[in-house]
Amino acid sequence: MATPHILVVDDDADLSALLREYLESEGFRVEAVFNGQDGVTRACSGEHDAIILDVMMPRLNGVEALRQIRQACDVPVLMLTARGDQIDRVVGLELGADDYVAKPYYPRELVARLRAILRRHVPAADARPANLSIGALAVQVAARRVSWADRMIELTASEFNLLVLLARAGDNVATKDDLSLQGLGRERQSYDRSVDVHVSNLRLKLEAASAGALAIETIRGVGYRLRVAS
């Protein structure tokens, strides 16, 4: 298995050096850049398996950098946010970040979150069907492609994983706990809105692509269900 190549985008050179040293000790290859514009340029080069992106940077901040990255590619992104800043976390998730870690962070937690993102982006093969379909929706699991009536739908890694789980659930409800554990790679906490934000983003994309024919139904207090209008 190839060594994962990580891009760190943070204007704090000292902290970046420490993070790079730790990540390399954990078996990663690391490139570091120190401003948002360089981060955007390098993020979509196709050379990296994931991006660690700090929110607080001068000139082009992490939120705007993420916006530009998502317009160009779907490389997994782990955001570094200020502790307690819920706004940055929610905005980051809405723009397509795969996860976030609050500063100051424990390096072991960051590495665990990073590895979970990498596992989700390249899911292990299993015996379940490689292709799923609901109405005009076609999901090619192994190729990680989604289309509605043969028109491609661009999804982030987390959105794709959640869609697969919803499609496989069929008429059953996919619970938030299952979506978090199987789709985002971690147990859901009572205060964690990550599943809700990712599902909200996914819902908007599916409804736009299908002109409202495909929807995600909210089962209050339980989870979500994918349905096609009759």
Which descriptors apply to this entry?
single chain; alpha/beta; Rossmann fold; Arc Repressor Mutant, subunit A; five-stranded parallel β-sheet; four-stranded antiparallel β-sheet
Q: Any overview of this molecule?
A:
By secondary structure, this protein is α/β, with parallel strands linked by helices. It folds into two domains: about 120 residues, 3-Layer(aba) Sandwich (Rossmann fold); about 100 residues, Arc Repressor Mutant, subunit A, CATH 1.10.10.10. It is about 40% helix and about 25% strand. The protein is built from eight helices and twelve strands. The protein has a five-stranded parallel beta sheet, with helices on both faces. It has a four-stranded antiparallel beta sheet with strand order 6-7-8-9, covered by helices on one side. A hairpin with a 2-residue loop joins strand 8 and strand 9. Helix 6 crosses helix 7. The longest helix has 17 residues.
In CATH terms, what is the fold-level topology of the largest domain?
Answer: Rossmann fold
The main β sheet shows up as: 5 strands, parallel
DSSP strand (E) fraction?
15-25%
Number of domains: 2
H/E element order: EHEHEHEHEHEEEEHEHHEE
Mean pLDDT: 89
- The poorly predicted ranges are none
Brief rundown of the structure:
This protein has eight helices and twelve strands. With 230 residues, it is an alpha/beta fold.
List the helices and strands and how they pair.
Elements: E1 5-9, H1 13-25, E2 29-33, H2 36-43, E3 50-54, H3 62-72, E4 77-82, H4 86-95, E5 99-103, H5 107-121, E6 131-134, E7 137-140, E8 145-148, E9 151-152, H6 157-169, E10 174-175, H7 176-184, H8 194-210, E11 214-219, E12 223-228
Helix pairs in contact: 2-3, 3-4, 4-8, 6-7, 6-8
